[in-house]
Amino acid sequence: MKRVLGAVVLGIALALPGHRAAAQFKTTDTSDLWWIPSESGWGIQIVQAEATIFATMFVYGTNKQPTWYVALLKDHTFGDYTWTGTLYATTGPWFGTVPFDPAAVTPTPVGTMTFQAQQINAAALTYTVNGVQIVKQIQRETLATIDFSGSYSGVLSQAAYGGSCAPAVITDATPATFRITQNGASIRIDSSSQVGTCSFDGTYAQQGHMGEVTGNYSCVGGDSGTFAMSEMIASWFEFHARVGTASQAGCTLKGFASGLRQPPPPQ
Prior knowledge:
62% strand, mainly beta, Lipocalin, 8-stranded antiparallel barrel
């Protein structure tokens, strides 16, 4: 699913966040294991906190032996989805040394690294090591498919971004309940809020630790159309997602859905 602002997926404009506000930086979380499927054997692990990324890259040196590099990357422009910083090679004590002496670890700058998140699931990685430049197109690596099945109680926020929309569908953190049933790539989300009672049926795809769904929805009041959910994340206590809908009546909405997992009913 494309990150570019204004991109249309099933007729739904899904603009992703990327702005700076009083000591804040919000964007799609890039934290994940990234790789190239056709180049299995090397990769890069990224952990993001606000505008800072810590990257650990495991590759092979000119001697074909395992080599790894680290970098602390910053998004200095706050919103163009590009992080840059110095790339380091390190040496240190043998892993079996007891006690481990962190003072014996020596970082050596060998070049630079740039990570540009072009899409939610795709990025350009450019780095240099001692004058040798490498450019790679990488993607999130999926380790497991997340099962969202469960009942959740939370909120729904959505705003109009095209067409003629009734005021009732524009919400600001309105209480909502969600019941999700999932069987492999088939997923159904039944939601209830002041907007109405609606069912969303779609196809689920896993991208790293995030998921996305595209499909069709219908509501008890007669509203229907297409929908897309992206940046879907679930844990043992909650789920959240970015949501966009395009109704057959011509109303385009985008917003967020989130909820706390409810305990199953007593047996």
